[in-house]
């Protein structure tokens, strides 16, 4: 067994021990679902970013960068990062205020409607399980690469690693392990980067060396990136559309916005959002610079998803390589644990109105249901039925097409009714699925302002409008909306606002620094070449 | 030229988002904390 395998397996044991320790402290439903609503900034930031970044980020996105699309990834991430600011400000803080334990419950309470809660719960379970499967495949492949074990053994190792603590500890364990994983993969990447940059000829020399390298993919260093035979308009349109899709996704999706429910107060939601935003832009750009540096070291890595793995094995000291592989695994497991917990909570709390005898009974049932759901996910991952495969392609964004317009309207509109909300969610969900299915199985193509996600969003808005037409919200809905807009006294602390504004200033400085660095080290050398 | 515009957009977008966050929180602080201070 290699040192890489041993390192990764040790890390898995650490997560299970930490997660189970957290589980032993869980006393009630609030602890299990929303970690007692007491989480500080670092834990919320950690779980936000770790749930977002999975094996896809370290393998899929770096592969795409390596093949000439770094500018697209930067643009997508910069737009997406804004969702971590707008999300809490326009949605997250309000749902936190209402002290719900799941986001579907929020929708159910807001519209005084069991069917809205059930629909939101069902869409959560479908998209989270499908996304979980995609991530599970990623961690399984990585485990196979490291260990050489069979698919079934690697699948079981991955599955046991995140299921064991997730079902037992719920959100308490998930946000703690997520934060540990967040620190590991950030630390590993920052430590490993200099080794790659040095081997590639130095970070300051990166752009000139890539310009001179005949193996550099066509268009890598141009603002539009590698066009892959398309046009500049298509490339720019794609990156901006996907960026906006992810902006909405991180603002309202249950695997992101639900983290707000666990925050100690609303100020924590703003600060953790700012940290996640900075990680999404600066940290991921650092990772992508590592990926394009690999072109100078080995331009022929195949499949390209193995760029960072190859680098871990061949370019850095063994101990650093172990850290990087542990970090990539951590990125996958942190996402998997979040998806499982969110799906499990909805399965227990939102789809059917169980009448639990007591808090203890609900806690016990929640654990069993989550374990059961995880086992179903394991079977689906092993058998990989086509229908699930289809949904996995867009599992990450479909919930945002279904919830996005309804979520923002639920906070800011006094006209949306229960019927409008229900139909909006339904048509948003079906609209994107329908458009994606047509695209995959026919020669029709939807892109730009007709991207399947946006088709879902347009249908969502239309359904909200037509569904709410001729109705007025009930008294209960009006009172709930009014209550949502009252800032609790406990939030009105001057020092908290001052600290929040410091984080905002940090974002502003990061933005300015990004422009200056990109112009000096990239734009000018490229224009002069 | 495209690269300069790209770099400006990316950085200024981030700056703008940060500025908006600052502005909203500052306005909220002025609105609610003045009221709270007056009550006390």
Task: Explain how this protein is built.
The complex is a heterodimer of chains A (529) and B (40). Chain A is mainly alpha-helical. Chain A has a single domain (3-7, 33-384, 494-528), classed as Sodium/glucose cotransporter (Up-down Bundle). Chain A is 78% helix and 0% strand. Chain A contains 22 helices and no strands. The radius of gyration of chain A is 23 Å and the shape is globular. Chain B is mainly alpha-helical. Chain B has one domain (1-40). Chain B is 95% helix and 0% strand. Chain B is built from 1 helix and no strands. Chain B has one helix spanning 2-39. The termini of chain B are far apart. The model of chain B has no long low-confidence stretch (mean pLDDT 88). The chains are: A mainly alpha (529), B mainly alpha (40). The A-B interface holds A 71, 74-75, 78-79, 81-82, 85-86, 89, 222-224, 270, 274, 277, 281, 487, 489, 492, 494, 497, 500-501, 503-516, 518-519, 522-523, 526-527 and B 1-8, 10-22, 24-26, 28-29, 32-33, 36.
Describe what is shown at a glance.
Chain A is mainly α. Chain A is built from 22 helices and no strands.
């Amino acid at each position: 067994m290699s040192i890489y395998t041993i390192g990764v397996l040790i890390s898995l044991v650490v997560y299970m021990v930490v997660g189970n320790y957290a589980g032993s402290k869980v006393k009630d439903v609030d602890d299990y679902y929303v970690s007692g609503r007491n989480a500080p900034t670092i834990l919320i930031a950690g779980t936000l970013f770790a749930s977002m970044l999975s094996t896809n980020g370290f393998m899929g996105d770096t592969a795409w960068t390596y093949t000439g699309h770094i500018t697209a990834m930067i643009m997508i991430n910069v737009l997406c990062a804004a969702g971590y600011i707008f999300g809490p400000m326009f949605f997250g803080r309000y749902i936190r205020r209402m002290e719900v334990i799941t986001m579907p419950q929020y929708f159910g309470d807001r519209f005084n409607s069991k069917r809205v809660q059930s629909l939101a719960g069902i869409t959560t379970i479908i998209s989270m399980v499908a996304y979980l499967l995609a991530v599970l495949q990623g961690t399984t492949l990585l485990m196979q690469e490291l260990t050489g074990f069979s698919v079934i053994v690697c699948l079981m190792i991955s599955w046991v690693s995140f299921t064991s603590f997730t079902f037992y500890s719920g959100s308490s364990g998930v946000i703690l392990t997520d934060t540990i994983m967040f620190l590991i993969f950030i630390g590993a990447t920052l430590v490993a980067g200099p080794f790659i940059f040095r081997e590639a000829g130095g970070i300051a020399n990166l752009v000139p060396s890539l310009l001179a390298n005949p193996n550099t993919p066509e268009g890598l260093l141009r603002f539009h990136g590698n066009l892959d035979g398309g046009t500049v308009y298509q490339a720019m349109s794609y990156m901006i559309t996907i960026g906006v899709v992810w902006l909405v996704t991180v603002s309202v999706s249950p695997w992101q916005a639900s983290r707000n429910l666990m925050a100690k107060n609303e100020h924590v939601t703003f600060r953790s959002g700012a940290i996640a935003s900075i990680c999404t832009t600066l940290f991921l750009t650092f990772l992508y610079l590592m990926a394009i540096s690999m072109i100078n070291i080995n331009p022929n890595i195949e499949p390209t998803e193995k760029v960072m793995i190859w680098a871990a094995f061949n370019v850095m000291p063994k101990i650093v390589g172990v850290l990087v592989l542990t970090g990539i695994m951590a990125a996958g497991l942190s996402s998997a644990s979040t998806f499982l917990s969110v799906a499990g909570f909805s399965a227990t709390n939102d789809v059917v109105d169980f009448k639990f005898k007591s808090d203890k009974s609900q806690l016990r049932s929640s654990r069993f249901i989550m374990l059961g759901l995880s086992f179903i996910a394991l079977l689906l991952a092993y058998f990989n039925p086509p229908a699930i495969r289809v949904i996995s392609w867009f599992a990450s964004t479909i919930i945002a097409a279904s919830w996005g317009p309804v979520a923002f309207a639920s906070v800011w509109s006094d006209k949306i009714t229960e019927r409008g909300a229900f139909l909006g969610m339904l048509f948003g969900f079906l609209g994107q699925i329908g458009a994606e299915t047509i695209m995959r199985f026919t020669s029709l193509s939807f892109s730009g302002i007709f991207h399947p996600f946006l088709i879902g969003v347009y249908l969502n808005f239309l359904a909200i409008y037509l569904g709410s037409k001729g109705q007025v919200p009930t008294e209960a809905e009006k009172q709930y909306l009014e209550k949502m807009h009252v800032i609790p006294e406990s939030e009105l602390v001057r020092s908290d606002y001052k600290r929040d504004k410091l984080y905002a200033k940090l974002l502003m400085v990061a933005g300015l620094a990004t422009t200056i660095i990109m112009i000096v080290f990239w734009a000018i050398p490229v224009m002069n070449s | 030229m495209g690269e300069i515009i790209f770099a400006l957009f990316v950085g200024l977008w981030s700056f703008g988002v940060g500025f908006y966050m600052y502005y909203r929180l500052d306005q909220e602080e002025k609105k609610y904390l003045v009221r709270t201070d007056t009550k006390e």
